[in-house]
Amino acid sequence: MSLIEARSLPAKRQIPADVEEIDLVGILDIETLRGGLAAIAAGDGANGASPAARLKILALLKQIIADARTAIEEALFEDGSGLLCARKLASVQDVVVREIHDYAIRHVFQTANLSVGERMAVVAVGGYGRGTLAPGSDIDLLFVLPYKQSALGEQVAEYLLYMLWDLGFKVGHASRTVDECIKLARADFTIRTSILERWLVAGDVELFAELGRRFDAEVVAGTSEEFIAAKLAEREARHAKSGNTRYLVEPNVKEGKGGLRDLHTLFWIAKYHYRVSTAEALVEAGVFSRREWRLFVKAEDFLWAVRCHMHFATGKAEERLAFDLQPEIAKRLGYNSHPGLKDVERFMKHYFLIAKDVGDLTRIFCAALEEEHAKAAPGLKGFVRSLRGRARKIPGTLDFHIDNNRINVTGPNVFRDDPVNLIRIFRLAAMHQLEYHPDALKLIRRSLRLVDAALRENHDANSLFLDVLTDRFDPALHLRRMNEAGVLGRFIPDFGRIVAMMQFNMYHHYTVDEHLLRTIDTLSLIEHGHLADELPLASGFVNALKDRTPLYVALLLHDIAKGRPADHSIAGAKIARELCPRLGLDERETELVAWLVEDHLVMSMTAQQRDLSDRKTILDFAEKVRTLDRLKLLTVLTVCDIRAVGPGVWNGWKGQLLRTLYLETEPTLTGGFTQSSRRERLVRARLRLADRLSAWPDAERDAYLDLHYPNYFLTTPLEEQLRHAEFLREASDGRPLSTSIRTDRFHGITEIMVLAPDHPRLLSLLAGACAGAGANIADAQIFTMSDGRALDVMMLNREFESDDDEIRRAERICDNIERLLQGRDVPANLLAHRKPSRGARLFNLSPRIRLDNDLSNQFTVIEVEGLDRPGLLSDITGAISDLNLDIRSAHISTYGEKVVDVFYVTDLIGTKITSDSRAERIEARLKAVFDNPEGEVSSLVAMSSPRAFGITAR
Q1: Which long-range contacts (CB under 8 A, 24 or more apart) does 706-710 make?
Q2: pLDDT tens per residue, range 800-832
Q3: Which of 145, 446, 455, 512 has the fewest other C-beta atoms within 10 Å?
């Protein structure tokens, strides 16, 4: 069967009406291919069936496929059409499968006239059956057999499959009769969906047509409700698995929320329920407007372009748009840098806007479905026939009513007649705790041009918006709906600039707008008492707030100036001073919001990067905060900000640091008055630990409590103190070195505790042991004890999915530690084969070294900021020791690819570094650690003497 004949089959592939039929001219010459295959068969003594002929066929096909893919990739660069690229790849695949099939029939098995029992249809199903393929896509084939099948069909299928496998394709396949296809499709929705998208590639036309007739009559007819329910449930499960957000900064282009699979799900349902064959037919069915149909095509084309480029760039079926790939794909798609935004950030912003469009289309589509299938509750969890809830009035308005527990418009002109209704609808929904009817959201999107300067300055509109922002029930839900509908970004243009904006770093998990909404959601959860056990301090502050408005406004605005050349905190404060009066805040509230925005990072930076036992740290922080009320608000804002960065970023240790900073600062701001003095808190902390250790003998318990210095009790969460106590108790068998391992899958870290004799180079050795195993230290806590030992707790970024694998890696690290401390190895050996980190390949971050004698009255503070990599902490601490500096405390912080390490140091006689020339040498030496990461670590050899640690090999 020729390509032209095949294209005339009844089950022709579904191609958008505005896209021309695929022309393979310049990509693949079918006649030349057939001529080559005929020549191989003619020149073979076995009529083309010999192993030698098979090898020649494979060589010919490999070359033709490679040339075709090169041509298709070049065309993708030129025209940018991802959908066209995917269809070209599928058409080339058609030719390859069909020609192998025909060659097998004519030459390998030499069967010119097939009997009824020898008929077979080679059917493309799934994505391939839809007529689109990415370069690395699986090839899904269904061999449809007649009721009585001879051995020939099995032989042809086997020949075809082995040829495809040898060509390097991943092939999913099944051989079934029509009866078996129908039976399995009834029982399995995956198989049903696969057969729904079918296309005859080669073989018997009538057999294929029979499958189509029976599938439509015996499977599809009368079952649309159950199919819709299954597909939507499958979609929700898939979204939940990926975090239920389309704004992950490393999205899955195929399976993620807002990705290709969501568009495919819409089309499967449409094809099944409305019996349409193209997306354009949904316009005729009244589901989409013509604009929305064009949006569907645009989104699909863009996503296919991204996916095809990803496969071409990596040479494999890569579906996750990881940091490693994003710069390359941005370059392939032709994005350029703009002031404040890198090319990759502009690309990813476009990606997330497309993902948002996919969400819009989903809601519009489901609105049409609901016209036929009423549901008892909001959400798309399944279709259950029920009587549609009778529309109910909303007190105080004639423009909106409640439709099945959703707010809906009463007519098509409610926004045109009164543009304030574009804000009022969200206020009414929040007030009455309603979801939004998709028809209302559709009308909102079609009315966005009404959000103009006049509406932005309208007093009622701003008052209503502020009510939504400070809603007592669920402000994040309604702000998110407002954002998804496009109203929020138009009503607050500065917010519109950060919609769908990603930050190209490995610290932030969400786009900027999604992060801001998640901070508001966190504050709402605190207000409702849902986080009281986890966040007792912040919960107490929120419950006592007299005016919640400035805090909510500050959360909405604290990162609103991201992506600008200026510092986003300072630029954000300027925006706050302009916007707050418009929203109705008075002068005092405006200045409070502006201060919170400008200094929203101060508390987290102080808590994590400064020595909280140093009095100068507390005094400097108190000087910035100035009042107790501002301190409480900043504490709450900081907690919400950190928790909304992403999973695993917030932990108990950071919470304890913030609590300690607050409690240390409180008496300074109140003139000495505090709910509890430092001494009282220390006594209570010791008593709490003593109470939890009540099973220990009194003498042993008292001796243990005397091991730790006061700062340990004030900065370490109680549960961690208990784990430390058990670890130290088990290690009290006379051994100078003990280690303990704990994995934490949820937070993505593995913890290693080390008990060893204290030594100036101990931290450097421990970091070197971690780096030698390729482990990266995310955080570290260093506790010196009164008996001359040190307890170091290191949190390592998780590498393996399996806990067993993680534990084995941690055991290698512990073995490294033991060998280093016993002098049986040196760090230089362990670090010789370290691999460059992911960040080193992707990010360009200039190192910054700063020495400060004003941050502490006793110590020189060295702040080191730069690109993280395995072994960096070991190199830095080793360099500090080489410089004859004594590290009194270290504060290790990792923000994705960036590390900020702060060391409180003195010289060897215990004084600050005051010489300018020495300070310059220190800066130059530490900068060299970043500039020459592969250089020798010869200075580390000398520190490996076992005598220095009092540890001998067993």
Answers
A1: 706/786, 707/785, 707/786, 707/787, 708/783, 708/785, 708/786, 709/783, 709/784, 709/785, 709/786, 710/613, 710/682
A2: 888 899 999 999 999 988 888 887 877 667 666
A3: 446
Exposure on the CB side of residue 905, measured as CA atoms within 13 A: 27
**Nearest one of 134, 168, 133 to 59, comparing CA atoms:** 168
Residues 41-54 as b/e (b if ≥16 CB within 10 A, e otherwise) read beebeeebbeeebb
Percent of the chain whose predicted confidence (pLDDT) is above 70: 89
Alpha-carbon distance of 870 to 771, in angstroms, equals: 5
Q: Give the residue-averaged pLDDT of 364-370.
A: 72
C-alpha dist (Å) from residue 645 to 351, 510, 538, 640: 20, 7, 18, 9
Residue 840 has pLDDT above 80, yes or no: no
How many of the other CB atoms lie within 10 Å of CB of 554?
30
Give the CATH superfamily of 3-221: Beta Polymerase, domain 2 (3.30.460.10)
Q: Is the pLDDT of residue 347 over 80?
A: yes
What string of DSSP letters covers 291-333? HHHHHHHHHHHHHHHHHHHHHHHHTS---B--TTTHHHHHHHT
Collapse the DSSP code of 75 into the 3-class scheme (helix H, G, I; strand E, B; otherwise coil) and give the result. helix
Please state the domain extents for the chain: 3-221, 222-388, 496-669, 731-949
Strand (E) positions, 758-826? 777-784, 789-797
Fold held by 222-388: Four Helix Bundle (Hemerythrin (Met), subunit A) (1.20.120)
Residues 6+ apart with CB under 8 A from 795: 749, 750, 751, 777, 778, 779, 780
Q: Which residues have C-beta within 8 Å of that of residue 704, sequence separation ≥ 6? A: 693, 696, 725, 728, 729
Percent of the chain with pLDDT strictly greater than 90: 55
407-461 pLDDT tens trace: 999 999 999 999 999 999 999 999 999 999 888 988 998 899 999 999 999 999 9
Task: Output the DSSP codes for 194-236.
Answer: HHHSEEEEEE-HHHHHHHHHHHIIIIITT-HHHHHHHHHHHHH
User: Distance between CA 57 and CA 62 in Å, rounded?
Assistant: 8
342: Cβ–Cβ under 8 A, 6 or more apart, which residues?
A: 504
How far apart are the C-alpha atoms of 114 and 102, rounded to whole Å? 12
DSSP state of 135: T
Q: Which of 365, 349, 32, 14 has the alpha carbon at shortest distance from 197?
A: 14
- Fill in the DSSP letter of residue 473: S
d(CA 645, CA 507): 8
H and E: helices and strands count for the chain: 43, 16
Copy the structure tokens of residue 918: 């020495």
